[in-house]
Amino acid sequence: MKTFTWCVSIDSSETTTQTVNRVQFGDGYEQVSSFGINNTRKAWACSKIAKKAEIDAIYQFLISTQSVEPFYFQPVATEPNLIVRLDGDISRSTLGAGVWQISFNLKQAFI
User: Fold this and answer.
1) CA 26, CA 38: separation in Å to the nearest integer?
2) I need a surface site. Which of 19, 50, 54, 108 has the fewest CB within 10 A?
3) Is the separation of the CB atoms in 15 and 43 below 8 Å?
4) Is the pTM of this model over 0.90?
């Protein structure tokens, strides 16, 4: 399995979602239970500012996964690698003087 080896910008963000079944009763009570084995899933909104060659390398890596192939991603240097997939669009833009920005979303995958 491939590994995403680049550090993402410090302004990248992580979201944790927990999926539950919820049944609401007419008298105000509700019953809540976990949905599935892996009901907690993380997602990241990532960005990176760097020279064009590095942005192009990240872009080619992400495109090569075709949003289907999972890969290892380490969002924080002190935390273990997680398995993720590309989730949605990839955006690249020039900031001038040979500096570019890339933005993309990743979603935790369970394989």
Assistant:
1) 30
2) 19
3) yes
4) no
